[in-house]
Amino acid sequence: MNLKTGGRAGGGRHRPVDLAREHGISTQAVRNYERDGVLPPAERTPSGYRSYSDVHVRALRAYLALVPAHGYAAAGEIMRAANRGELDAALASVDRSHAQLLHDRETLDAVEAAVATLGRSAAASGGPAAGAPPSGPPDAAADRPFSVGQLAHRLGLAPATLRKWERAGILVPQRDPRTHHRSYTAGDVRDARLAHLLRRGGFPPAHIATVLHQVRGAGGPEALALSLGDWRQRLTDRGRAMLTAAGELAEYLRAQETGSAAAGSTARSCRGATPAGPGATTPTEVA
Predict the structure, then answer these.
(1) CA 35 remoteness from chain centre
(2) 99-108, pLDDT tens digit by residue?
(3) Which of 97, 112, 215, 233 could form a Cys-Cys staple with 70, CB 3.0–4.6 A?
């Protein structure tokens, strides 16, 4: 069967393999989607085989478009709510994903601004990027963990400032297993230096915590700077996927409404039909 024609809910009937072929997935995957509630329940033929309608075709297209836009969990929530007729719940899930994307964009903007500040600081000092290991003979003391007092003295800060940064999520020092005192590694020293610089640049603690979380995940400020372009491209790709998913979801909801209206019209016609009396000729007998 050609699933590309039509596009609206109609009278077409489709086998699991027809739906699977359109998307290059297995028939078992189609059955699993039905089992998990992201597809409406299929009708069954007299011999017990699944029979899908054009509404199911639209449902599968919508779900597979929602996954790259919103993720598997949210896509499943959206489809199950739509299939239950809970449109507000489905749209609320969509709204949460859009809000998360906006938050991610704002986070990226903050990180880019902070990295630019770090780069300007390095250029002004004529040295390596902030937080980069110094050139020249190694500092033996830098290889040893620092206590909170030692690190505060090294950076010209008060110990209370470092503790405040820890509470804000800017620093994540380990604890000495014997004394339970804070123990700052070379990576923590780097993060503290970056935080000190960004605070002088006027960045609020929440933004600094976000930046340093990204720095730690990337393996350093230089690696983070190189990854920002890829990060923005991923957000752009997700935004475009959301546009595609919105269109497919709208088509599915329209197909649902059309199918429901057609079913209601058929039911009303059946209830309004005049029962055939004894000896009356039915259309089937005429045919």
Answers:
(1) 23
(2) 999 988 988 8
(3) 97
